[in-house]
Design brief:
single chain; 277 residues; alpha/beta; 9-stranded mixed β-sheet
């Protein structure tokens, strides 16, 4: 692991790092905000998964999360949204597939299956790296994300409930099997196997019996991508399965980081409350 840069931030440290990933088979970049409490003790840690086209820097720069994270004593971790430099023909031609669009799953179709293994990377390798090299409490780990990253946060929390004690999402792709973004990604990464698609669809996972800690989901009603997100499918699945869900719909808010920065404090407090239990 190498340190690319560190910056004093609200009494803590904002750092950017790179390591050689055994899971991905390529260098991967990530960022960590360590609150001031981390100087003296292990603290709860939140993994944030970003959306299409974003990098490990996007959330840390745009969300305005560090001030409250410092007050609450929360470590924040972000990672890149896909492998970089895999050398796959056409991997940079589409903004919604390939580079910047790993969809937080392990690809099953060649040539993507060699390097595009973001589920294992996030839920195992990056988690272990953070717990080994930073003062993060392994018993208090949360996950949240935005759009494609909201999809990732929900599915990883549902599939690996023992690893995440809190979860939330901003404008998640809640039923990717039913939208163009998800269908494109699933066909390219997973092939035509419907069962494989369901294993990466939050609404389908809940309907199939998977459970996670109480969910907080925020959705803007002026979101230009609303037809892709299918938040109503998630709501119906949670109601049918008695999966606790707080779903808040907000007039006038769109899909971007002005929306996220408006409600980030509520999400950090949601995680802090869950991780104190």
């Amino acid at each position: 692991m190498t340190t690319r840069s560190t910056h004093a931030c609200f009494g803590g440290v904002q750092g950017y790092y790179e390591h050689d990933s055994a899971v991905i088979g390529l260098p991967m970049r990530f960022s960590v905000y360590q609150p001031p409490q981390a100087l003296h003790e292990k603290v709860p840690v939140l993994f944030y998964l970003a959306g299409l086209t974003c990098t490990e820097e996007t959330f840390m720069i745009k969300a305005g999360a560090q001030r409250l994270a410092a007050e609450l004593g929360l470590m924040l971790v972000t990672c890149d949204t896909s492998p970089r430099g895999a050398g796959i023909a056409g991997e940079s031609e589409n903004w919604d597939f390939g580079v910047g669009a790993g969809f937080y799953l392990d690809a099953m179709v060649s040539p993507w299956s060699t390097h595009y293994r973001m589920e294992t990377y996030v839920s195992e390798e990056l988690r272990s790296l953070i717990l080994s090299h930073f003062p993060a409490d392994a018993e208090r780990v949360g996950i949240f994300g935005h759009s494609m990253g909201g999809h990732g946060a929900l599915t990883l929390a549902l599939k690996h409930p023992e690893r995440y004690q809190s979860v939330s999402a901003f404008a998640p792709i809640a039923a990717p099997s039913q939208c163009a973004w998800g269908q494109k990604a699933f066909t390219g990464y997973l092939g035509d196997n419907a069962a494989a698609w369901s294993a990466h669809d939050a609404s389908a996972l809940i309907a199939a019996g998977h459970r996670c800690p109480p969910l907080l989901v925020d959705q803007g009603l002026a979101d230009q991508f609303l037809p892709q997100l299918h938040t109503d499918c998630l709501e119906k699945a949670c109601q049918a399965a008695n999966q606790p869900l707080t779903l808040r719909r907000h007039t006038d808010y769109d899909h971007g980081y002005y929306f996220i920065s408006t409600f980030i404090a509520d999400h950090l407090r949601h995680h802090a409350n869950q991780l104190k239990r």
